């Protein structure tokens, strides 16, 4: 179950940073910054989740 959690967290984090990269290439720096914050929060908040 923990492996599934980490896979979801990793996919979500990589997707948000990839989307931020695309937004940065489109000259949307505010959107890229927001997506980077989302990616960081997904990664950091996943440590607070406790699996039973």
From TrEMBL:
Transmembrane is among the record's keywords: yes
Domain of life: Bacteria
Residues passing through the membrane, by range: 30-49
Keywords per UniProt: Membrane, Transmembrane, Transmembrane helix
Protein's name in the database: DUF3953 domain-containing protein
Source organism phylogeny: Bacteria, Bacillati, Bacillota, Bacilli, Bacillales
């Amino acid at each position: 179950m923990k492996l599934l959690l980490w896979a979801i967290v990793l996919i979500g984090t990589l997707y948000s940073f990839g989307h931020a990269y695309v937004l940065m290439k489109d000259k949307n720096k505010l959107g890229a910054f927001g997506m980077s914050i989302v990616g960081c929060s997904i990664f950091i908040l996943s440590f607070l989740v406790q699996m039973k």
